[in-house]
Write a structure and sequence with these properties.
The chain is of the alpha+beta class and about 500 residues long. It contains 14 helices and 27 strands. A hairpin with a 5-residue loop joins strand 14 and strand 15. The longest helix is centred in the C-terminal third of the chain and has 26 residues, at about 390-415. Keywords: Aminoacyl-tRNA synthetase, ATP-binding, Cytoplasm, Ligase, Nucleotide-binding, Protein biosynthesis.
């Protein structure tokens, strides 16, 4: 194996970047600001995608696909949305290249191939989707319209970090239309719950559900709901958003329906999404200085078997291992048998530890003769000998235990790094000395929020949904505050 990873304590940012690369998740590409998601990383994303897709379909949603390009006039139709994304847009202006007469073997943009109207490469798809919905919705019988798409989007970024912020990334975006505001709000809240359930049950990532302030709201939304998670360096990461759009896009694109009384009304909309940023959250929330720590439900390989043998013994040993391998597979467990004869066991142990495989079995002929198997769990590094007769059931239960332990460990970390603060001085001190979630009162004004952000680089992550209101006074201005907000520095 290559030299050890930097530690989280030494340089958290470098540790993260090196881990993502060395574990084979992703790497920087030849295109500035973009990444290549490697097979092992994409396998994790596929498991996320498959689970989320099942959850969306269980709640009545269908998948569709809409164009990558959005005519500028459509993009401009909802002004707040256009203004909010304008600085991040990649724009197509020409449709053809030609050989360069001045530079043999080179190409140039054909000056005669200018588009009549520029095309925006989608940073989000509300414009193209709502312009389509106008043709799909005529009557209350056409509602609700519950559509999701899996796609890539482009948001021009110069300062990038693998998974967390790249110019192009993968995501899903749900876009729904409803007959009433109440239905649309219920949809927005339901999808927030779906995201929270996925984060906690599958990513083993505890999250806070809340509402964004107007300053942090999605451009073009009436309300933005979010789930916020805490990473091991005390910074917050927004792990998913769900937006109540009101009638803003319906009015911008004139999406109307005839209600049961025959009266025409504009529909009410929502949009919601999570992206490959979740991969970054998965790495940062759980991993350690030896490598990835993956929750079993999302691990591409849940169990690795490393044969321990002397020269000439491998084939016979593999025959004896096969029933264990097949028994695990029959239980629905993904298994990798690492029978490479080019690497020593120690190398293999370190490699699979780096890749975060939840359970490792080291099996030699002597172990099998004794009716035992050496088992190591990745989350705690605990090594144990378990009876061969019950090994499949034992490993199955161990995977469940590991999933639970990883979640509880992250939950304990969050609890230890969530602090109620009452003074601005304490707020600033905690951000520097013991970063995490800070629950603090502020007066709710955009001006105070901006001041805090400018002076401390901390933002209001959300106004929590499931916590009791508690009146107090703003730590900055001394004005009344109806409730505490979650603050943190964030990715």
């Amino acid at each position: 194996m290559s030299k050890k990873l930097p530690t989280r304590q030494e340089d958290y940012s470098l540790w993260y970047n090196e881990l993502v690369k060395r574990a084979g998740l992703a790497e920087n590409s030849a295109v500035r600001g973009c990444m290549v998601i490697k097979p092992y990383g994409y396998a994790i994303w596929e498991k996320m995608q498959r689970q989320l897709d099942d959850m969306f379909k269980r709640t009545g949603h269908e998948n569709a696909y809409f164009p990558l390009f959005v005519p500028k006039s459509l993009f401009e139709a909802e002004e707040k949305n256009a203004e909010g994304f304008a600085k991040e847009c990649a724009v197509v202006t020409h449709y053809r290249l030609q050989t360069d007469p001045d530079k043999p073997g080179k190409l140039r943009v054909d000056p005669n191939a200018k588009l009549e109207e520029e095309l925006v490469v989608r940073p989000t798809s509300e414009a193209i989707i709502w312009s389509t919905y106008k043709n799909w919705v005529q009557s209350y019988r056409d509602l609700p319209l519950l559509i999701n798409q899996w796609a890539n989007v482009v948001r021009w970024e110069m300062r990038t970090r693998l998974f967390l912020r790249t110019a192009e990334f993968l995501w899903q975006e749900g876009h729904t239309a409803h007959a009433t505001a109440e239905e649309a709000v219920a949809e927005t809240r339901q999808m927030l719950d779906v995201y929270a359930e996925f984060a906690e049950e599958h990513m083993a990532l505890p999250v806070v559900k809340g509402v964004k302030t107007p300053n942090e709201r999605f451009a073009g939304a009436e309300d933005t709901y979010c789930i916020e998670a805490l990473m091991q360096d005390g910074k917050a990461l927004q792990a998913g958003t769900s937006h109540f759009l009101g009638q803003n896009f319906a009015k911008a694109f004139d999406v109307q329906f005839a209600n049961k009384e025959g009266v025409r009304e504009h529909v009410w909309g929502t949009s919601w999404g999570v992206s490959t940023r979740l991969m970054g959250a998965l790495v940062m929330a759980h991993s350690d200085d030896e490598g990835l720590v993956l929750p079993p439900k999302l691990a591409p390989i849940q169990v690795v078997i490393v044969p321990i043998y002397k020269t000439g013994e491998l084939d016979a040993l593999l025959e004896r291992i096969k029933p264990i391998q097949m028994g695990l597979i029959a239980r629905g467990i993904s298994v990798k048998l690492d029978a490479r004869d080019t690497e020593r066991p120690g190398f293999k142990f370190a490699e699979w530890e780096l890749k975060g495989v939840p359970v490792r079995l080291a099996i030699g002929a002597r172990d099998l003769d004794a009716g035992m198997v050496e088992v190591v769990r990745r989350d705690t590094k605990q090594k144990m000998s378990l009876p061969l007769a019950d090994i499949v059931a034992s490993v199955d239960q161990l995977l469940t235990d590991i999933q639970t332990n990883i979640y509880e460990r992250a939950k304990s970390f969050r609890a230890a790094h969530t602090t109620r603060v009452d003074s601005y001085d304490e707020f600033k001190r905690m951000l520097d000395e013991e970063p995490g979630f800070l629950l603090a009162h502020y007066d709710g004004t955009s001006e105070t929020e901006e001041r805090i952000k400018e002076e401390t680089k901390a933002t209001v992550r959300c106004l929590p949904l499931n916590e009791a209101d508690e009146e107090g006074i703003c730590m900055v201005t001394g004005k009344p505050s109806p409730r505490r907000a979650y603050f943190a520095r964030a990715y």
